[in-house]
Specification:
This protein is an alpha+beta fold. It has helices at about 1-10, 15-20, 25-45, 70-75, 90-115, 170-185, 190-195, 205-220, 235-240; strands at about 10, 45-50, 65-70, 120-125, 130-135, 140, 145-150, 155-165, 200-205, 225-230.
C-alpha cells in the first residue's frame, strides 16, 4: 500500500481497496479490513489523509484521499533515490487530476486480474518523464501522466497516457501533442525501447473527445496514428482493443 501511494501520489480509500483487498469473499469484508488497515497505518504515521474529502463528510472514511505520511517517507528513503513527499494541502484541481490518473492505473491492474490484458509495466510521474534535446538543441522534458505496456493474445502495446480534465485549452493540448512529435523525431524512445508508444488522451466525456479529435485531425490529418482519444469510461476497452476510440477512423 505504501508503494502504491508513493507511485500514484494520492489514492482514495476505494482505490486502495480495489488494489490491495480484492481477494476477499465479499466487498463488505474487503471494505472493513481495508479501513482497519488504513487506520492502523495512519496511527503509525506511515500514511495520512488530506483534509479535503471526496464525497463529503457523510461518506465517512470512504471519502478520504490518502498519501504517504512522515514515517512512510522515512521508510521509502531507505531505498536509494526515494523522493520526499509534499506536506502542504494540495489544491482541488491537482487532487482531481492525480486521482484521475490513479484511476487509470487501478483499472489497468483490475483488467490484468480479470485476464482482459497482461500488464507488463507501468511508470508514474516522474519515472515516466523523458528528457531530450529539441530541434534547436534546447533541453526539453516530456511529461506524460502515465506510461504503460500491455499485452493481449495478439499484440503488445506501449502507451503514453495523458489525462485531460477539461481544464486546459485546446491550444495547450495541441502544444503537448507537438512536443510528443518532437520527441518521436529524436528516435530516442525507439532506440531504447524498440517502439514509440501511442499517445492516448483520456477525457471526461464524449463532447470533449469530439472536440479534441477534431482539433487533432485539423492539425495532423485523418490518417495519423500517433494520437488517440478516448473517454474515461471507455479507457480499458480501448487499451484492450475491444472498442475504437471516440471519433476514430479505424
Amino acid at each position: 500500500m505504501l508503494l502504491s501511494l508513493a507511485a500514484c501520489r494520492l489514492l482514495t480509500t476505494g482505490q486502495l481497496q480495489r488494489l490491495h483487498f480484492a481477494d476477499h469473499a465479499t466487498e463488505g469484508a474487503a471494505s472493513r479490513i481495508c479501513r482497519r488497515v488504513l487506520a492502523r497505518l495512519q496511527r503509525l504515521g506511515v500514511i495520512e489523509h488530506l483534509d479535503r474529502r471526496i464525497g463529503g463528510v457523510r461518506a465517512g472514511s470512504a471519502s478520504y484521499v490518502w498519501r504517504v505520511g512522515p514515517v512512510g517517507e522515512r521508510l521509502l528513503r531507505q531505498d536509494e533515490g526515494a523522493p520526499r513527499g509534499r506536506h502542504k494541502q494540495p489544491g482541488l484541481r491537482f487532487v482531481d487530476h492525480v486521482l484521475a490518473v490513479a484511476e487509470c492505473s487501478v483499472q489497468l491492474v483490475e483488467a490484468d486480474r480479470r485476464g482482459d490484458l497482461e500488464l507488463l509495466a507501468t511508470e508514474h510521474e516522474p519515472a515516466c518523464w523523458r528528457g531530450f534535446l529539441g530541434a534547436y538543441g534546447g533541453a526539453e522534458t516530456l511529461k506524460p501522466d502515465l506510461y504503460a505496456v500491455t499485452a493481449t493474445t495478439e499484440y503488445e502495446d506501449s502507451w503514453f497516457i495523458e489525462v485531460d480534465r477539461s481544464t486546459e485549452s485546446l491550444p495547450t493540448l495541441l502544444k503537448k501533442c507537438a512536443q510528443y512529435e518532437r520527441y518521436q523525431r529524436t528516435g530516442r524512445e525507439q532506440e531504447q525501447r524498440g517502439v514509440f508508444p501511442a499517445v492516448l488522451w483520456v477525457v471526461p466525456d464524449d463532447r470533449r473527445a469530439g472536440v479534441l479529435v477534431a482539433a487533432i485531425r485539423r492539425r495532423y490529418g485523418t490518417d495519423q496514428e500517433l494520437f488517440r482519444v478516448t473517454t474515461a469510461a471507455s479507457f480499458v476497452s480501448v487499451i484492450v482493443g475491444a472498442a475504437d476510440p471516440p471519433g476514430s477512423s479505424n
